Recover the amino acids of this structure.
């Protein structure tokens, strides 16, 4: 069993991006600029946004952070998005989700100029993914593809079982793993809450990607000897072993599963750290695509 | 074994659309108008386009057909698309594929106003499909969903194996069968040219959707007793049994497979007739969505 070290790989990726930024500086090219909009005071969202801003500093990007109170109107938010769309200095733009109920996620995402859609959630980005065209990939699936690639894990002709069908993880993961590319070219089964005999299916998997948000759902008897297990789940559960009183749990019962696997991602420290690195990669791509 | 009669269902669907058009007329609402652009003189494409125009007449739609010689420039074609985009009388617009090599399919599809994209190939249409939002569905997958629905075939919790990963059939089929809807909610495995042990996988399928374009690929020993088999393949093969010297062959070895199935589509007369009916349905939807 080899542990897939997302922390190490994400650091590698960030260092490569920092290097690319340094080279751009030397050549007098534009420094990538990410704008992040946060609405409300949800603790989790604040933490994520701050991590994104810090990651920008780390790689040498410029960043702009806009904080709105939870009471901001949809129209004011959309106008700010339009302002960033028209600002040629801003290369990447994201609005931290979830949003308060009076604001439509769909409208917000649709309003972002697709050429700045570094979250990869815009319908055009998703549609290009379906068509196999180059585009911004959603951060978590992109991070997983990066891990598979950097650990030289063979995917071609393998049976990959994706647990979960969200349009943020499960569905794009299915599209990426099945498409004609490397990594990719896998036979993919997408399972979800309505799947019957799920253990029968996961036991056939050479690669399991668990993105259900159901703590320790994948048990040892659901995993084939030698399988690759990627755990996307991060559910906060109560714990008396930590100072905070909380612990992050993945979708995989790590302790009992790990010895059956050839590769496995831990939680935390597996897929999680890759998402922000993928966001930075998208932002660099946004500025490169403009040829600036 | 019950034969799924695509000819009958497509006629039903067309009659329902004709009825809706008649009601629109009575109420003084706009008559749906489909514009079709054909480039070059490929016999197959000409036949398809003529069938589409005739189908419009049948249901009472207005239609416009533009013929370009194979030498037409990309810019001239794009300008015609833009003209139709701006023409408020035109509700649906499609350019018959394939196009000659000097014209980019991608540019053509991207130029079509998504609100008139009745072929469902525009990236925004595909992206909305991924996100589970209402949108124009590509004609063949939409036709298959219609058949499953009208034959009351249960899909929830069933294992559906899709053979083929094209962005015209296999991929949207996977998205539709797995999404939270009725029909839908199936566990879906997408297979393709790189899949190993394909027979082992198809033998587990409650529903097989074959869209490989490989004549008689699915044999009896690949099909579970009682499975539903949907055949999307239509390959022209030489035949001494027909006057034309050609015969349409599906992806399924119909004669040996049929008795193992609970439902099966024939070729021709199964999925094929549904595609034009789906196109008409999309065109009606286009005008209804505008509230005209």
């Amino acid at each position: 069993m080899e542990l897939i070290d997302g922390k190490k790989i994400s650091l590698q990726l960030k260092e490569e991006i920092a290097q690319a930024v340094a080279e751009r500086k030397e050549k007098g090219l534009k420094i990538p600029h990410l704008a992040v909009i946060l609405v409300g005071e949800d603790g989790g969202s604040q933490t994520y946004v701050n991590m994104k801003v810090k990651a920008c500093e780390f790689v040498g990007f410029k960043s702009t952070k806009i904080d709105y109170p939870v009471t901001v109107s949809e129209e004011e938010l959309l106008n700010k998005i339009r302002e960033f769309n028209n600002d040629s200095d801003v290369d990447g733009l994201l609005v931290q989700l979830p949003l308060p109920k009076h604001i439509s996620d769909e409208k917000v995402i649709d309003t972002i100029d697709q050429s700045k859609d570094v979250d990869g959630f815009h319908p055009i980005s998703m549609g290009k993914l379906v068509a196999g065209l180059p585009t911004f990939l959603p951060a978590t699936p992109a991070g997983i593809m990066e891990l598979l690639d950097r650990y030289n894990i063979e995917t071609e002709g393998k049976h990959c079982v994706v647990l979960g069908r969200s349009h943020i993880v499960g569905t794009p993961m299915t599209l990426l793993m099945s498409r004609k590319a490397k990594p990719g070219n896998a036979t993919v089964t997408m399972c979800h809450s309505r799947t019957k005999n799920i253990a029968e299916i996961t036991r056939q998997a050479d690669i399991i990607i668990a993105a259900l948000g159901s703590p320790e759902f994948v048990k040892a008897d659901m995993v084939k000897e030698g399988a690759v297990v990627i755990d996307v789940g991060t559910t906060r559960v109560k714990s008396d072993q930590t100072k905070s009183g909380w612990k992050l749990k993945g979708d995989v019962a790590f302790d009992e599963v790990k010895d059956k696997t050839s590769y496995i991602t831990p939680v935390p420290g597996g897929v999680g750290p890759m998402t922000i690195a993928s966001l930075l990669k998208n932002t660099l791509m946004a500025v490169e695509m403009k040829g600036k």
Summary: The two ends of chain B are 44 Å apart (CA to CA). Residues 28-115 of chain B form a domain with the Rossmann fold fold (CATH 3.40.50.10860). The longest strand of chain B covers residues 33-39. Residues 6-26 of chain B form the longest helix (21 residues).
